[in-house]
Amino acid sequence: MFKYLIARASRHLSTNVCQSAPLSDITKVWFTPLPKDAKWVAPLQMHYIENGMKKDRDIVKIFNGVMVVLFNVSRQKLIYVRQFRPAVYHGLITGNSFEMPKGCIDLVKYPPEIAVTLEPCAGVAELNKSPQESARDEILEECGYDVPTESLQLIYQYRSGVGASSAAQTLFYCEVCDEQKVNAGGGVHDEVIEVVDLSIEEAKEYVKTGATVSGGPSTLLATLWFLSNKA
Ligand SMILES: Nc1ncnc2c1ncn2[C@@H]1O[C@H](COP(=O)(O)OP(=O)(O)O[C@H]2O[C@H](CO)[C@@H](O)[C@H](O)[C@H]2O)[C@@H](O)[C@H]1O
């Protein structure tokens, strides 16, 4: 099944995405229950009375996010990032089951590459910054372009995961040129991120009807917005 998934994902990724070397060397994977002091998600339950009926809903609180449709006008390329996403890996391994995988994962059966996503530049909306400032910082850290916040054009504000998590997401468009490239990108601290450029033709191929994309809905949203408004 996973050979099928990889083959399917590869078929829908552009050539330069598929042919790059493995992103990193992941040698061991295992799962544990969420510790009580977890800082990135907070599960809780909401209760309410609707039309006289008590209802209970399970919710997972997560941080709000920002993301950017980044277009290099010098080279006429859309800029994305590739990264290993643990939540995607878990989802691919477990399917629709809530049972926690036991022991160490068989990395031959489930190669980590299956969970390397292609996404727009994105990150957490920092509490002490405006969405524009958070987006500018992500562009610099992940993709290596130094841009003023004024060059960020607001496209959409929407909510992701409305069934259980519902974080606010702010999507921007930003044009950059080669002169604004000040570092290689790739993330900060222990982040392992690869910057990937797609031509407009490659982006069209990536989101064609029937495609299975490796990124989240923001990858589709960002690319389709660009293709219908800027291409
Ligand atoms: N779940 C998690 N558990 C532990 N550490 C974590 C974590 N998510 C992020 N981090 C830490 O925060 C660092 C920076 O994350 P980013 O700001 O790039 O957010 P990311 O793109 O992962 O989006 C993330 O946050 C935005 C806003 O919630 C979501 O839209 C997106 O799906 C989500 O991956 C990561 O390298 C990691 O150290």
Summarize the structure.
With 231 residues, the protein is α+β, with helices and mostly antiparallel strands. 25% of the residues lie in helices and 30% in strands. It has one domain (2-27, 62-229): Nucleoside Triphosphate Pyrophosphohydrolase (Alpha-Beta Complex), CATH 3.90.79.
Number of helices: 6
Helix content: 10-25%
Cα(first) to Cα(last) distance is 36 Å
- The number of domains is 1
- Main pleated sheet: 6 strands, mixed
Going by CATH, the homologous superfamily would be Nucleoside Triphosphate Pyrophosphohydrolase
State the name of the first-level CATH class.
Alpha Beta
Number of strands: 8
Rough shape?
Answer: globular
What structural class is derived from the secondary structure elements? alpha+beta
Instruction: List bound small molecules.
Output: adenosine-5'-diphosphate-glucose
Please tell me the overall pLDDT: 91
Poorly predicted spans? 1-19
Radius of gyration: 19 Å
The second-level CATH architecture is Alpha-Beta Complex
What portion of residues belong to β-strands?
25-35%
- The arrangement of helices and strands along the chain is HHEEEEHEHEEEHH
CATH topology: Nucleoside Triphosphate Pyrophosphohydrolase
